[in-house]
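Retry 2 of 3 after timeout on previous attempt. Resubmitting structure tokens to design endpoint.
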């Protein structure tokens, strides 16, 4: 299984600028209490959200030294690393699709108003496709950098598409042929990326309780948890990646109930 190291936070390159972590909570405040109250009580496993608070306040994030932005800032954890374990959906032979966008308005080729060669074109399809997963929408610089770095990982897999956080509107044109006795609609099914990985947070090696060499002994601890990020994709043109699919259903006989439809224009004679 492929494993790649992704740097999150600290001073990182690829156009993301500098990420500054200002979280100052001790591990005890995060609810995991590796050694914060002197009892050396370790809660295992640490809840994922609480472990992530420690991660964001680590002294090193994927080997990158963090620097205090405030005079009294402390680092509640020693290290935090994220490793990609699997990338799915990049292979065109095994694509991953999300929920379809809302279908277009239905076109009925049903009695008494039928046409032998009915077709319709849909120009705009509305919908929404958003990124999903742990810590990708926390609204801080850490999550923004995490998303960008996941995008860089996706780009390593030879695909033309790029990872994005949200797709709201699809502009496209498709012609759907509707046989007699059928009703036709059009749907857009967005293609998605799926990236799996493992977070590992460690601490307790720096005598965080204080006291120097005469203080309590260090109590090393480590928490790991898996996560899966699922995100929509964009094509190089800027349009969402996905498939436009017609959907046909049988007429029920009630399509023109309480209606007086105008007949389709007759086909031109040759």
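Retry 2 succeeded. Sequence:
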């Amino acid at each position: 299984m492929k494993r790649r190291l992704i740097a999150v936070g600290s001073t990182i390159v690829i156009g993301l600028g500098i990420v500054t972590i200002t979280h100052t909570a001790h591990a005890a405040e995060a609810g995991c209490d590796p050694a914060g109250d002197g009892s050396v009580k370790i809660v295992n496993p640490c809840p994922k959200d609480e472990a992530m608070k420690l991660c964001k306040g680590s002294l090193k994030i994927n080997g990158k030294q963090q620097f205090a932005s405030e005079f009294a800032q402390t680092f509640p954890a020693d290290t935090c690393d994220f490793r990609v374990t699997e990338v799915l959906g990049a292979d065109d032979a095994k694509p991953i699709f999300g929920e379809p966008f809302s279908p277009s308005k239905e076109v009925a080729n049903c009695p008494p108003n039928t046409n032998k060669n009915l077709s319709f074109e849909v120009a705009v399809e509305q919908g929404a496709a958003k990124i999903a997963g742990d810590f990708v929408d926390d609204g801080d610089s850490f999550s923004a950098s995490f998303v960008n770095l996941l995008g860089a990982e996706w780009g390593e897999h030879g695909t033309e598409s790029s990872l994005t956080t949200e797709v709201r509107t699809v502009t496209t044109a498709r012609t759907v042929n509707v046989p007699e006795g059928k009703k036709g609609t059009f749907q857009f099914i967005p293609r998605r990326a799926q990236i799996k990985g493992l977070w590992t947070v460690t601490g307790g090696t720096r005598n965080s309780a204080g006291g120097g060499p005469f203080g309590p002994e260090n109590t090393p601890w480590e928490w790991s948890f898996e996560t899966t990020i699922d995100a929509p994709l964009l094509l190089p043109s800027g349009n969402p990646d996905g498939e436009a699919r017609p959907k046909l259903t049988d007429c029920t006989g009630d399509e023109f109930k309480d209606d007086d439809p105008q007949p389709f224009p007759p086909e031109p004679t040759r």
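Attempt log closed. DSSP finds two helices and twelve strands in the chain.
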